[in-house]
Design a protein that fits this description.
The complex is a heterodimer of chains A (471) and B (279). Chain A is an alpha/beta fold and 471 residues long. Chain A is built from 16 helices and 16 strands. Chain B has 8 helices and 16 strands. The longest helix of chain B is centred in the middle third of the chain and has 14 residues. The chains are: A alpha/beta (471), B alpha/beta (279).
Chain lengths: 471, 279
Amino acid sequence: MKKVPIKPQDLDAQKRIVDFSEVVSRYTEKEALEEAARCIQCKNPVCIIGCPVGIDIKKFIAQIKDKDYKGAYLTIREKNDFPSMCGRVCPAEYQCRKKCVFTKKDLPFASENAINIHFLERFAGDYGMENNVNIPTQKNEKLSKFKVAVVGSGPAGLCCAGELARLGVKVVIFESLHKTGGVLAYGIPPFRLPGDVLNAEIDCLAKLGVEINTNVIIGKSKSLDELFSEGYSCVFLGLGAGTPSFLKLEGESLCNVYSANEFLTRVNLMKAYEFPRFHTPINIGKSIVVVGGGNTAMDAARVALRLQKINNIPPNVSVFYRRTEKEMPARRLEIEHAKEEGIKFRFLTQPVGFTGKEGCVEKIKCLQCKLGEPDASGRRRPIPIEGSEFESDCDIAVIAVGLGANRVLTSVTPNLKVDKWGDVTVDSETMETSIKNVYAGGDIVGGEGTVIEAMGMAKKAAAAIIKRLLS
Amino acid sequence: MEILEKSVLMDTGGTRVTKIVVRVPLVAPKAEPGQFVVVMVEESGERIPLTVVDTDKQKGTITLIFQELGFTTKLLGKLNTGDDIYAIAGPLGHAMEIKKYGKVILVGGGVGIAEIYPVARALKNVGNHVTTILGARAKNLLILEQELKSVSDELHVATDDGSYGKKGFTTDILKELLTNDSKPSAYSLIYAVGPIPMMAKVSLTSKPYGVKTLVSLNALMVDGTGMCGCCRVTVNKKVQFSCIDGPEFDGNLVNWEELQNRSKIYCKKEDHICRLEKT
């Protein structure tokens, strides 16, 4: 057995920052076989416990090892309709790979030696997608007379739709934007998740008979009550965490201070990087500061760097984070990629305000921090050091410090119970909300989570919906 | 979303205001005065908010009126009857609260006149005494005067150059009305839509008289559903999103300077794309 983990080829850092091409290459067949051979096929495969949707990881890796790629694809699809997507965006080092027996105990994330389950998943997913492997459906006659509405076409909505359609339920998705995919389309940049991969997996749903209606804002264009009167038996809400949080600091509404959501939406969904061919503009500066330490911050920083490169501005993007690298919630791979590409990091740095000239941001004011005792999140709390204030050039700032609940629907649906954060309250067993036959999942329930966690909730809801329809 | 009717309301000296009636069956039955839609002219287009000026709930159509000012509104102006608009979503924002206020003043400047029309009509319909003040740079730039007249008890016009109505600004007329009025004022509401400086000045003018002044802001937007924060505006020292918290706010609480700055964020980009279009 080969001990050294196989890394897929990445595009050269200097070459890849000139456009939005995908950074991580897919495993070649040889690489996939070598990596699959590293798996020791544990008797008790704990990696599966780490997967929010319970993919039979042991089995699909064995199938890859046996060159049964179609089988591997079908094994994954039993639990997950979006292997090409998840293989690219799952933070595997906090999930399946963290549980892998090759991960040393008590680490906050997977050891490098842990099997690269996500890369293998992507290999199988792309194989299935490119070879048009058909998914066996288990249509249940009793279910075909029911219609279910899915609100939102992000990870939770897509997943719930797939689960239901596969069993023969007529599913209609309502999306408020003009494109399908939710955060997968507006939030995740194409160099991590290319548009054609997203579209191909969404097309798979269409093949299952799912109907997708864009430009429909449930709560505005149609109410929940109207959906029921149109004959939908159940409704699934995958509304997402759609409201950007700001730091609430002085100067934060100066021009060129963006929320990460706006910055990424302009680029990813509206294609501002192809301005003026695409008409949505974005401003780009000489000294860009991204505030935050999560995946969104990494995405924003790497997008910003590419925009500088495309506009012939010397790359100068810094990430300001108030803790240290170890506490960053971002995927390790993204941090690594960001560093390779030349993103600068300023740790233990907490912004306290922005100053500007003629209405536009010019400087960011910060305090230096030190780490104190762990807080509720288990991470050590940053403590600002008195008198450590400093200024830094900043003509574009991107605030990536989290998201709150999307309130468009909940604010007009008073009997839909929400918690103090505005997230929808559900029965944790069934994901049913305070309104009968209305279910919810994804970020609108748990707050900001990962794609696969959203899918985990959606599957639970889909199972409960099926049970309800059959009862 | 098909354009069923198109007409040019005004076209003079490089200023053109166009009216279109579009089939949007999902929006038409829902849209109330004060609400807007997000429009994408074509697939490569940007998302812009436009106020719903009128609806035909039976036919499933909405009326939009826009000045062909920026790249996207010019592009929209190039479409004709029978053409399809790539995307329209809505209705968005809060509707104006239509009830009996008593005596109300509506102030419309430029293309903002189109935006006060549905509100004026609705307020009139529930029995308010409606005084309307319209403003334009010159007589030939004034739109919808007859329409507004038909839903107003009193109508005043101000033109910058004095070519029609009173020479001066809408705020000159507003000040006169408020000064000549009893104390405390008999007016219970002022509603203003127009260029940012006009709305700021209306708010400033009405403040000493203590009349509640609502303005409908036209901040830049992307999604229009509260997701991006592009349209944020500081109201009473708190950050609000025009799209979901507005578009109406108390004019005396809005940070106008910030709004004015933010409305110009992309001026250079706009010049660039418009120049390209000409060559």
